[in-house]
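Lay summary. Proteins are chains of building blocks that fold into shapes, and those shapes determine what they do. In this project we predict the shape from the chain. Here is one chain we studied, written as its sequence of building blocks.
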Amino acid sequence: MSAVSWAEYAAAMPDMAAAGHRLLYQFGPGLGYLATVRADGGPRVHPTCPHVVEGDLWIFIAAHSPKRSDLDRDDRYALHTFPCVDVDDEFYVTGRAERVDDTETRERIRRGFVSNTTPEEILYRFTLERALLSTYAPRPAWPPAYTRWKA
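And here is the predicted shape, written in a compact code that computers can read:
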């Protein structure tokens, strides 16, 4: 399956991408749960600070983090937004992560982040293969309305 940039996804699904962006940034900095694949094949989930900068989805990850080791070994990921305060809307993307070691790119992208980064963190660009947006009526509500996208 081919993976695309955030900008390409947003061009194909502007309303869905805008809703996903709002959910990623609902608390100020980008916040989400990043799922990676451990060396034994099991899932690993950690909170992280994703940001959309220059038409791509980026995350800085600590050099000693298990997430970094996971992504360097197996580039597949899933990213899910934090829960909302007033409604149960959710946004989820999957795709591939690419480590970016170029100093110029790293500094340019870092300036676009709302959250803090450190010089020891490693930059990853996340391309998208699939996205799912679940929107709910006011609580309690079931089922949600689903919007799906695939590259």
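What the prediction tells us: The CA atoms of residues 33 and 47 lie 4 Å apart.
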